[in-house]
Amino acid sequence: MTSILSAEQTALLESGEASIVVASCSEHGAPSLGWGLGCRLVKGGERLVIFLLEAQSHEVLLDLRAHRPVSVLFTLITTRSLQLKSARAREVPLLATDAAMLDRYGVALARGWLVAGHSESWGRALTSREGDTLVAFEVEPGQAFDQSPGPRAGSEFFNKTRQNVLANPTVAVVVVDPESAAMHRLKLAYLRTDTSGPVFERMRAKLSSIANAAGMSELFKLRGADLYRVESIALLPGRNLPKATKRRGLSALRCCSDALARARDLGQLIDILLEGLARHFGIEHAMVLAIDRQGGRFYTLASRGYGDSGVGAEIPLGAGTVGIAAAAKVPIRLAHAAAEYGYVRAIRENAAKDPVWAGRLELGIPFPGLSRPHSQLAVPIEVDDAVLGVLYVESAEQRRFSHEDEDALVTLARQLGLAMRGYEPDDDVPPSRGPASTEGKPLAVKYYAGNGSVFFDEEYLIRGVAGAILCKLLRSYTREGRTEFSNRELRLDRALGLPEIADNLEARLVLLERRLREKASGVQIQRTERGRFSLTVERQVTLLERD
């Protein structure tokens, strides 16, 4: 009899880099799972010998010894899988060479898991044989189902699995702890499949974020989210690694929240937030982005941990982790982002090549961000059911952000959203006038009404609504000598183009204030109290307005 396996499939099995899961069922249809430690090919793949541990895979071994049907799944970290099915398996004696072969298999498997950011010791723990009895079973593959990345990836055996679940709604799952390599076996009962609702939307948003980054948004479409009831959880025997000490999440959240409550304005609040993330959560790379819905883009208000602040840098609205988190109104947390998942940088580079976006985005300001982020978390900043921006953090470390980090950042983002909404003072600010400054080198300011862009001495400063606001302030200063202004009068000025709902005025003022500070050209705005600010001009200004 010849093997049903192709040369490529045989090479996959011989590589030793594929994890192995063995499945069977009882005579009543109850599923069982076991973790394979390696495999040996017999006669070029005509038969396979699969190795399991007696205590760790006790349930599936009972079914195999009862000559029940068996399914063996080999999976590479690259998402390629091969499923082999056989009518039965038989126990065979161990060979003298099997121990050395399994040692080599363990080394290869650990090397394969390095791609996902796991340590070599984590990978070796999965194939440890300490304190357990090794068992070998021989299977003769009758069917083979190959899953390779592509439009129809996994359609064959996933569709079959779906049919099996609907026919017998009892499921077995093995879950591996990403820190300790501890394995847990879960018995689940299928409840329903959601095609809408909060669980479905959250899963779809995360899948969209990954697919978008990989350029496969048209291929990956979530059709449904299966919900199960957990019937039992059992810790399987094995060698486990010590888990890292957890950060004190509630204590860190309280420290940050207390500090935010003392902020006098939005700009100070953002600085306190980024400082608090670094000091209390150990999050060194973070940024706050606000939304300009009319312009179809995000703009950077502040950042921490990067060489360039990137204040004023833009990315398209609705793209990448940041855009999907804002559109779906759910946090997006990626624990194993590959190198090519440098979302904001990749989006920006692609936009620069696009004939439409290249003209819509300000690409002159370097965007902050890690070149190789491996963990990312984007949290929408919401208030009154409106998304005003996104709090985005990233790390070069795999699995850096936990569920607790996500919960804490959601809470802090809501506190930030209340401040970004801003408020108007009870009465308008009385106009304050003074003589225009004639000191220092003259400053030529050009304003282009078409896109709200402002240039200081032919050097780009800012654009959009923030640019229109600066022009209004300088116009009032050069014509009337005014230096005191209020948020309220800006909101009442329809010529500025502020939307009537969720105008993000506070965020635009913070952006303007920080861009002026970075330019250090003798023009500054400073908050005097909430809802009011002053304009300081240290040079003679000539304002030239163009259409």
Search tags:
single chain; 547 residues; alpha+beta; six-stranded antiparallel β-sheet; five-stranded antiparallel β-sheet; 25 strands; 32% helix
Textual characterization of the structure:
There is one protein chain. This protein is an alpha+beta fold and 547 residues long. Helix content is 32%, strand content 29%. The chain has helices at 7-15, 58-65, 98-113, 120-126, 155-167, 198-213, 249-261, 266-281, 320-328, 343-353, 403-421, 465-480, 487-492, 505-519, and strands spanning 19-25, 31-36, 38-42, 47-53, 70-75, 81-86, 89-92, 134-139, 143-147, 170-176, 183-194, 225-235, 285-292, 297-304, 314-316, 332-334, 375-383, 386-395, 443-448, 453-456, 459-462, 484-486, 523-529, 532-537, 541-546. The strands form 6 sheets. The protein has a 6-stranded antiparallel sheet, with helices on both faces. A 5-stranded antiparallel sheet has the order 2-1-5-6-9, sandwiched between helices. A 4-stranded antiparallel sheet has the order 3-4-8-7, sandwiched between helices. Strand 5 (70-75) and strand 6 form a beta hairpin. Helix 8 (266-281) packs antiparallel against helix 11 (403-421). It is elongated. The termini are far apart. Mean pLDDT is 84; it is low at 338-344.
